[in-house]
Amino acid sequence: MANILVIDPSRSMRNTLKERLEYEGHAVEVAEDTISGMTVYANRHFDLLLCGQPDSPLRTSTPWIRLSHDSSPESAVLAMQQGAVDFVTKSINMNRLLDAVRKGLAKTPAAVADAADEAESVPEEVVPVRRVRAARSHVGRIVGESVPVKRLNTLIDKVAPTDARVLIMGANGTGKELVARWLHEKSRRRDGPFVEVNCAAIPSELIESELFGHEKGAFTSAVKQRKGKFEQAHNGTLFLDEIGDMSLPAQAKVLRVLQERKITRVGSDRDIDVNVRVLAATNKDIPREISRGEFREDLFHRLSVIIIRVPTLAERIDDIPILVDHFLETICGEYNVPVKKIEAEALAELQKLPWTGNIRELRNVVERLVILCENTITVDDVKMYANGLQ
After folding, report:
1. What domains sit in the chain, N to C, each tagged with a CATH number?
2. Sequence-ordered list of residues with C-beta below 8 angstroms from that of 27, at least 6 positions apart, any chain
3. Which end of the chain has fewer beta carbons closer than 10 Å to its terminal beta carbon, N or C?
4. pLDDT at 220
């Protein structure tokens, strides 16, 4: 569940979005304009904002999505320049909006930190029931002691110091972005920028400007020169997340940059050298996408000098006690409450669940248990709350 604020001058639009987002399990507040919306925002924590107020940028660190009746590329470019993480026209179907909301929520600080290994030791008297604690000492490593995670950490340690391109493959929620971040942090480029691009979230008509930048006057709303993501990542790392969702024309442009190590801004004919290590991630079966003509084989070969496959939670089920330990400490810290205990039987019950949503789903379940349970989480609590139905 996320806290979402909807700002839109249309009452019917506000009500429609509120009803549907609440049906999806989110807590929703609404406001009719930016001024009243920011008043609401100042008095409550929100994970995502939806803004339908025309030409009104939101000066906030919280991810926000522009809602607009204007579907022109210029309006989309302006929204992205103002800081929006996505641009959705109000006439588009609800599934597109919900997809944008899911992707926007993936950019929240809590989501980015979901699998981050920042846990420190929890005193034994605070959390007496813990059978596995070894991962607490793994600063800079993926949390876990299972064989798949040990192999993953070993591979990261070997690959990170090189400049080799890496394709990170794995299901949603497995922690592909975390792998990319550790590859950067352990590399010789660690002091340079780490720039992430969600390829699935950028409309096809904006991808060239977003990646390569543009010159002033290149199109109607290009009021000033703008560097693209490749230039922003110069001497650092560029992470192309969900590259399997990138359009074929955009793939061709990225392939050229990988081959020539040069970019050309939109509206310019001057090449600019870029020194960037490229990491990419996808949840798709790329060989199958290639056979279907949806992904360029030459780009795949350029990206996949090294392929890292991130295991699902089902493949590392023995790590659940360690992960629960980590999430309990992190989440209780976020809510400023004492770290809750969990019975061994409750941990065993969690290990029986299918975990189709992987690490992300496990964190959500732990957060739910922290909110709804007493000081000690029991096996009955897990049976009652783990599926999200109370």
Report:
1. 3-111 (3.40.50.2300), 114-140+313-385 (1.10.8.60), 147-309 (3.40.50.300)
2. 1, 2, 3, 4
3. C
4. 64
